């Protein structure tokens, strides 16, 4: 399903700060060589991640789903000097590519790559997260959300990618486990009195989620 008119997408890309030469190199390499290149964050979404990071100036960022490292590098561009990104990738081949990209662009001082199952890795990371970017297996979104929410800082944000899942969440009846899982996640967040959120129709859909203050909580 075509979610956004291609002319609109082209126009928004035209009036968005273009990706750097280094990011463009990663983008072109991924598109040319990776069979799942559609999973890459595009230039507009990448610039949005950079902007969000620059606005909130997080000390600790968690990314669940590294892929080839493009989104982590976009986050790193907006990171303060004392900021740190911990990014988790399940697939060893993608983790290797991401590690090479981080090394190539001298990002290792601010990006730590973990290879393995996020469910096992997250509990062992002793940080309070100021920003969490969820872009991994869709059937685990609710689990990831519940894992990170208790360790999200008071002014922290969660960004969830692919919340429109190629438009499949609009179909009736829902088909496919990923579309069903994403729709369930969207409902879960909507019904959670601990948080508030906005869903944006950027690329494949992004939700920005914020923990409510104690005096804002509704039970």
Word description of this protein:
The chain is an alpha/beta fold. It has one domain (6-212): Rossmann fold. It contains 8 helices and 7 strands. The chain has helices at residues 6-14, 21-33, 43-56, 70-77, 92-104, 118-121, 141-148, 177-190; strands at 60-64, 84-89, 111-115, 129-134, 152-161, 195-200, 206-211. A 7-stranded mixed sheet has the order 3-2-1-4-5-7-6, sandwiched between helices. Strand 1 (60-64), helix 4 and strand 2 form a beta-alpha-beta unit. Helix 3 packs parallel to helix 4 (70-77). The longest helix is centred in the N-terminal third of the chain and has 14 residues, at 43-56. It is globular. The N and C termini lie far apart (38 Å). The mean pLDDT is 93.
- What general outline do the C-alpha atoms trace? globular
Radius of gyration: 17 Å
Class by alpha and beta content: alpha/beta
- How many domain regions? 1
What fraction, in percent, of the residue positions are helical?
25-40%
Number of strands: 7
Global mean pLDDT: 93
Helical segment count: 8
CATH architecture: 3-Layer(aba) Sandwich
Q: β content, as a range? A: 15-25%
Low-confidence stretches: none
Q: H/E series, N to C?
A: HHHEHEHEHEHEHEE
Largest sheet: 7 strands, mixed
> CATH topology, anyone?
Rossmann fold
Class, according to the CATH hierarchy? Alpha Beta
